[in-house]
Fold each of these.
Amino acid sequence: MNSEKELNPAEQLAALGKAQQAMDQASGYGAKLMGTYCIVLGLLIGGLAALLQIYRPDENFAGFIVIISLFAVAVIAMSLAYGKLYRSLPRGFSKMYLRGFVLSMVLYTVALVIMSAGPFAWPVVLIIGVVVAAPLCVTGIAMVRK
Amino acid sequence: MKATFNTWYIASIILAGVAFFTLALSVYFTGQTILLYVGMGVFLAVTMTMTSIMAQRQRKPSKGEIK
């Protein structure tokens, strides 16, 4: 006995539309989640870059190691989150994420080099933090809004 | 047992993170600041490479898509 009835073309189209709608919904959710992660990570990395002013390697090595560990954990967590979510991201979002991620990482490295040159005035440190956080935060905001 | 790409992705990123941390810590004992930058460079290179490969894998199935 076969309980499944054959669908006519109109019903098939409707089922396809329904499935597509569910997929769009899932990818929208994935994009929002990934965007939120990007914003949080961006703010965290920007904050850590600014904190290098207080925890300089030559003055407070223990604090510096904590900052570096937090940075490594944040980057690993972000990469693992991307590894989980990349299938549910809309097309083009991986490229967008990669661009923001690479830019923020490179800027953090530059900040590390600059900050080790000596203590700076706090407004300068704030600008450095904002510049480091900006690429990931902008990417995250764009992902959440789309 | 064959490891999937996802396993390689997770393992290499975590390993690179641990290597970076170890190199950063070794700066304290050796006084060679350059080790920190080497560790940072390796960590970023591994993370970025693995993420780009992952992103390419997302684009791959779309080749066979009906337009």
Note: Chain A has a mean pLDDT of 83.
Amino acid sequence: MKPAFSVISFTTVAGAGQGLAVALAFATLSGVPLGPTFLPLCLAVALVLLGAGLVASFFHLGHPERAWRAMAMWRTSWLSREVIVLPLFMALVFVWLILAWRSPGHAASGALAVLTLLLAAALWVCTAQIYACLRFIQEWAHPLTLVNFTLIGLSSGLVLTSALAAIRAEAAMLAATLPWALTLTFAAWACRTAALMRNAGLKPKSSAQSATGIAAARLVQKSMGMSAGAFNTREFFHGATDAFVRHVRWAVHGLAFALPALLMMAARDASAAQASWLCAAVAAQVAGVLAERWLFFAQARHPQNLYYQAVS
Amino acid sequence: MSTTTNTTQATETLAKQLALVIDLNVCVGCHACVTSCKQWNTSGSAGPLGDENAYGANPTGTFFNRVQTWEAGSFPETETIHFPKSCLHCEDPPCVPVCPTGASYKRAEDGIVLVDYDKCIGCKYCAWACPYGARELDEERQVMTKCTLCVDRIYDEKMAPEDRKPACVKACPTGARLFGDVKDPESEVSKAIRERGGYSLMPEWGTQPANQYLPRQRTGPLAAEGAASSEGADGVKRVSP
């Protein structure tokens, strides 16, 4: 598949926003002591990230002015469900932000935190199932798709929370989040590696023979029926060389997981300048997760490509 | 967590399912169906099909139907097979349930899979969900487009009854394209599927395509075998695919 930059940036940014909101919800529920401005500040950051993701997703549409129609088919479409859950989640974060800002420690905070956990999970399910429900894209049609969207979102959200806690000198929060940020980064790395290994061993179920019903051992396309490109040759091929894809894979391992983990360990052991180490971890991971999403698309081999192999 | 929630819903069996049956034995790869399809569908009330750089080095445009060419076997035992390809109007179309707006739908009365261009937001998700690559986003209108089985033609009572067929079917000079109701066992298409070994594309995905393909058959030498041959007066030996 051709990586769609709008969707890549949407899932990267919104995933970090979800992870940040989840970290704040757990901190609230477990009674981590926070400075008076830290919670509203972080909720505002989460809201900005979710909003930026929403704006990015509009660039994917041919008719963004009709986007409201996408709420209609929630009974059958995971995309429709995502389009409903994302604004609900943003509204919830906004309500919590107002409450945390105007009346800190309000009795409803706990309930809002629980709701935040539920809606963040629901949004990860919707986002991942958009891809995982396409049964003939074998690289996507697997529970690891959901596991990875969730773990990578949690990892990037917790690294960001730790960086914000270090910047604002919230020692208790940093002490609570940094071990989790490390743990989840390693868990995400392990599960994404499992998905990459699974992809490497996948045997496509479709072949030129099944696509045409011509049962010859040797069957090659001589012409796709056109001399220039079409939607089918643009949307489903990433167009990059194998070497480039390999480099992106190393960038995913290095920037999304290994380097952020090393920087977090450096921050953990540092006596000063923890914020600098953690901001560097956030910067590396943003680039790494963008690369990870690019690879997620590029590795998906759509069976329609069997019909578009030769120009003559 | 099921990964197939969107795609394995029970679909009611329709009483009528219009479809094309493509005879690979007689398609000569002339592309008349491609151009007639483009002509009819670019001239209708839905507006023209996009064409960018039509006279440039890299023309690109929207087509609902293509004729591809494949080579089967190893030299010298090779066969050239012309392979028309368009939407298969699946009985369980994976493109329909994924559409977030309801713009993609399958008609209950005749099984045609259509796009409501006024509801389409151009998210391309239905194209991702079609294993056959049967859908094309129109780059000028920014909506998803696909074969309509000439729905604006086959019911047009202002046309002569013999013209109420898809444009591609009318254009084919060799009769390689049959059109009819595959749920009616006495229809021309049902008989052709039954008697000539009609098959589906990519049966492994369970989409139950309504369109079927008739396999190539070995044609015996006319002079050597003669009209009295058991192979029939047309000189065609019926072989299983």
Note: The mean pLDDT of chain A is 97.
Amino acid sequence: MTPTGRLRSVVPPYLLRAVADADAFPRAAEGARTALAALATVQQPKHDHRVRPRGVSGTANRSPQRTISDAHGSTTLPGTAVRHEGDPESGDAAVDEAYTGLGDTHAFWLEVFGRVSIDGAGLPLDATVHYGQDYDNAYWDGSRMVFGDGDGEVFNRFTIAVDVIGHELAHGVTQYTADLTYQGQSGALNESISDVFGSLVAQYARRQSAEQASWLIGEGLFTAAVHGVALRSMKAPGTAYDDPVLGKDPQPATMAGYVDTTEDEGGVHTNSGIPNHAFYLAATAIGGNAWEGAGAVWWDALTSDAVTASIDFAGFARVTVDAAGARFGQGSAQQTAVQTAWQTVGVLN
Amino acid sequence: MHIDVRRTGGFAGTTRGWRVDTDSCDDPTGWSDLVDALPQGAPPASNPAVRDDFTWTITVERTTVTIPGSRLDGPWAALVARVRDEGDQT
């Protein structure tokens, strides 16, 4: 996503000031159209290809370096640092959940893939909690995780689910590896990679096999008032919630349900259901611990030079099939499982 | 004056919307003051490194601006907050 690409219209200041004046509205509309036309000519910046560190750097500090800050309900970052590495529990649930979740995520990447922190070089892990008022979100700002407390009516605090913490940190891992462009299919892959590894962080922390895992994303985030079990289901996309206020989980499981939209960077949180489901199918077909089977294949793909920033579903799928062959053998059961999974969701023929 | 506020994206990927007709509100002058206070420069651009951010689309009559959630601040944030508090969900 480019800095300008998200702007539907950049409104000149005189038009904003004139909004209350009915006579000025035609000019406002014309100004908006002019701004739109100008935006269409803006060039995308060249993709800054990132170094892809693999394995452990000899000099990297292998211990997590966590700092949890408290925004105290403001939207000013980073807020006040309230728990540093090695500090005892603070007694604040959001602070302590973030600290523990970052530790679980750090351990996952180090112990499973030999990667020291999200950049492979021991990057300190920073998070801010209690961000904003009734803030129903968690996001990755390029260098830190930010967690809201939820509104208490629909959403609980976003630190409540370790897979959400793993999801946000996986955005950092993707940023330092394939750097998938956050738009359309590559954006949905970016989102799916975060759900995949967020889910694997939770599965690894609980030592759950693919058969034992719930394959839900954000379980516990909804309050009891919501008709739903989680925000997304990798096992059955589109079934996580069906609620009078929120509506129904819009995720498709297959390409037949692919959603064409300009919102949400082209439906990155919606169409991620398709690669999510492919991962689930591959992981459960392979069986055992998902981080050792399909998870390892997806990691090989994410760090492969064959994955470009703007790759589409089919391109990424082919890289995973190749990666499964390279890791487990050509024609292996694992490679067949990966190939079949992508065929089942309609991405590969 | 109609003001529409729409929130898309975010971790959950759900869309929410709110709308007010300030002419039928008790305090139309207060709303005019909020609109008059909007910044004179272009709204903040998104940071391309941010993931899972909200996107706010704010329409005042026929003028629409889009602002990334992580940069919604000051008078824009004040306007959005009041529309959410007093507007009808769309």
Note: Residues 1-45 of chain A form one domain.
Amino acid sequence: MHEDMRTLLNAYLDGELHGMRQREMETHLVSCAACQNELKELGFVSELLRADPTPEFTPAERFVSQLTLSLPRRALHERPPKPGSLPWWLVPAGLLGAWFFLRTVFTLTDVVTAAKMTGLLGQAAGWLGNGQETIWFSALTSLSGGQAVGALPMLSILNNVSVFGGYLLNGFFWQALIVLLYWAWLFFWWLRRRPRLIKMRNAS
Amino acid sequence: MTQPQPADTETSLIEKAQNGDRNAFGELVRRHYQGVVLVVYRMCGDTGLAEDAAQEAFMRAWENIPSYRLKSPLRNWLYRIAVNAALDVLRRKPEETLEDKEARIVADQAAGPEAVLIEKEQVALLQQALKSLPEAARSVLILREYNGLSYQEIASVLEVPVGTVMSRLNYARNRLREILRGYTARTEGEYA
């Protein structure tokens, strides 16, 4: 107990102990002569240190004049756009636009694919070509004369799974990329805004 | 480049200085000169060296102000630069001999009534002892005693945890207390 309190004597002397710790220290000091004495000595050291007079220095005005004359020229720094400027806000607007464009493309693709598969488009779907084959499946089909491979149900299923997976991955990749870029923008926005919040807190 | 007004906030002056406005930087120097010069003087213990160190500190601040961010108060940032500048100035100056130190203490001890003399000796002794403390402990003690910074502010200036500030301050004051005790024991013997 005594040793714990001893290490806190300086903090007590400097008014850095608060609440329960301060009360504990005050209670301890009432009954501990050693700590009372040490506190007195520490206070005396502090008093003597401050008793040393500060000499006269060059007056601030003259110092500033001399200093500003000797300051080296500095190239103006190109600073990133501030939050609030137009280019800064164009970033999230652009990302939102890109996301909207992608969603439209994917939805239209889904609709057209579904219409084609159900035969709703009829002959009009001919110009769309056969988008249901992977490269490896097309290569195998052409090598075997378009007969033998197409007949194997396993390869056909694998081809369909690959086409579906590729479609999903493609959609997911681009949207995830947009979301990541948006998060990055939000993070930078927060980083640049933080000092202002601190300043406002200090001012209040 | 417009002349800064006294009402200009520190933030606007910093922003102007970051864009190369010397007058705005000059105003910031004017506002923080007293505190910075106090730090460097106590670190160096010599007026001439302190003014060199203050000049160096503000030059460094000018060079680095574009990278300063308002995460911590400017004062803390300047004090950090000042402590480092003072230590660099001290490292560059020729080592003071023991005879010089003793001669200075004797010169400081002006004749007078006994009690005044003892106190003057004690003050001079502590200033010498302060200079002999390790740099880390000395800078904490100076920021506390002469600049009146709180433990949290000292921690921010020196970029160390508050616990480290407390332990360095304990070490520094206890070391000075021991030196003072030794001196008191000696003088009591002499005057007895």
Note: Residues 143 and 149 of chain B are 6 Å apart (CA to CA).
